[in-house]
Amino acid sequence: MKTFRASIDVMPHDNLLDPQGKAVTSAMDNLGLPEISGVRIGKHITLQVEAKDRKTAESKVEEACRKLLANQIMEKFSFSVEEAAK
Question: Is pLDDT at 5 greater than 80 in this prediction?
Fold first, then answer.
C-alpha cells in the first residue's frame, strides 16, 4: 500500500448566491481595495489515503467528496492526488 495526499477544493456552484463572498467583496471597497471583486468563498481540504495505486486513491477521494465533503446540490468539487513524500 502507498500513501497519497489529496487536495480538495469545494466551492458553491457558479449560479448560486454566495453570501460570504458577497460580504467580503463589499468589504474590499471599504478597505481601499476596490479593484478586488467577485469573491467566492469555499473550503480547501487535505487528507491522506492509503491505496494500492493512484487510480484507487482518486476513486476513494471522489467517493468521500460525493458522500460527505461536498453538498452536490449547492457545491462543486475538484481535487488532485499525489503520492505523499516519505
Answer: yes
